[in-house]
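Notes continue from the previous slide.

Worked example: a multi-chain complex. Inputs as given:
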Amino acid sequence: MFLCPVCGKPLDDGEKTRACPSGHCFDRSAQGGYVNLLRTNRRGSADPGDSPEMCRARTRFLENGYYEALRDAVSDTAAQFPARYILDAGCGEGYYTAAIARALRESGSSAKILGVDLSKAALRHAGKRCPDAEFAVASLFELPLPDHSADVITHLFAPMCAPEFRRVLVDGGALLTVKPGAEHLWGLKEALYDEPYPNDEEETVYDGFHWMGRVAVDDEITIRSREDLQALYQMTPYAWRTPKEAAGRLLARDTLTTKISFLIDLYLAV
Ligand SMILES: [Zn+2]
């Protein structure tokens, strides 16, 4: 399914390497979990994407079940669409990818799942967590996939590349994208800021897509340890822009109860 990033021809299914008919060759990871299709001159840094520390923190947080409500809603929604190929764009450690794979199996679908992410560290986790999916290190802005080859794209908390997603989707294909609802992490924001602002809930318009509707996911979670709180904090944009003192106050806590709220927006490729 994946294409050679140099010449665009299909890659074979080799055990240790993937090669195209022109002889370009790409190594699979030692455990076989992913193939690295990122071109050296496009990397920007030696090891782009989320760092191993970030991946470990996120894995810890997600595996403790705090975002289960979102995981279940995304996987149930994605599995409703008839599909031969589903792409999880920006799949990270494969937490949602694995749930989508499970939902598809339970619904009797034989759809193939592909995951793309910029981070090798993330895909090392993903390959182990979801052995029946195919993963590639690549940029979402330059997906190693043919035109009109995916029936569904899921997209959670990764950069939005609507033109590239449209290129890869079949006509009538579905894009599921997740964004935070107005009061997502309200308890955490209250702990950080004197006057927290709600997130904007307006749907975004993308060329080549028709907005079909949305699924709202709301829950309340209690973070049970300082380590989990630290992990959550690192996953948020606030980690970059909060004054040290406020961050220190938050991270000194052992527990935090907060609302979580997500919007799954559904788009039809037209
Ligand atoms: Zn090639």
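Summary box: The mean pLDDT is 93. The two ends are 23 Å apart (CA to CA).
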